[in-house]
Amino acid sequence: MAITTAATNSGKVELGLGYHNGTTSTGDAYKLLLIESSQAGTYGASTTNVGTPGTGTPSTSNTGTDAHVSTGDYNSINGVTLTNVTPTLSGSTAVWDFDDVVMTGTTISADGFLIYNSATKGGVAGRVLSVHSFGSTKTTTGGTFTIQMPVADASNAIYRVA
Amino acid sequence: MSEARFQQESTTGQFYYGGKLCLQVIYEPLTSSGYSLTVQHFKDGALVQQDVFAVPEGVSTQSTARI
Predict the structure, then answer these.
(1) What ipTM was reported for this prediction?
(2) B64, pLDDT greater than 60
(3) Subunit contact B59:A7, Cβ cutoff 8 A
(4) Fewer CB within 10 A of the end CB, N or C, for chain A?
């Protein structure tokens, strides 16, 4: 269907509920989940949860069969764990950042990814913070898939609270 | 002798060795920021490995969503 780069609407509410903590080491465990090429679901601001990756029909609350299977260093269908960089202020914008992700030995065909909180918050795990499109299908063949987080400033950071 | 063929403003470049394509780099920009590089490794004319380096576009809680 389609992937639209967006901060999720549910994530905005969850910030106010205290369900997200991006502090280095002591914060929540965030993950990056790749979405398959030719995905069946629609991903964007209305996406709420990763649900049960690999199982079920894709919807706003379940990536289901759209979740990319594990390959090489992308070693779980639930995605790869991100390393938090404690949010900071850039001008009047709060910026979130994570370490870059380098996955070797992969065979991947993906159109984008979700960043979600794998910790259980308010009785629910898998809350999606943001959705990111690659613009087109990105494919590795026995190779390295590197995702370099953009510069952590008010104009570019991977997640910005303005 | 290796030979590189890159043209100014081109989104694709090739490296040749012994007259054979051995490496191809494809640059693809995203809508407003971010980009990706796809690096294809060839041996005897056949693709043997493909790598991706992507810098995604970030999101703002204030901005309009982009496709």
Answers:
(1) 0.94
(2) no
(3) yes
(4) N
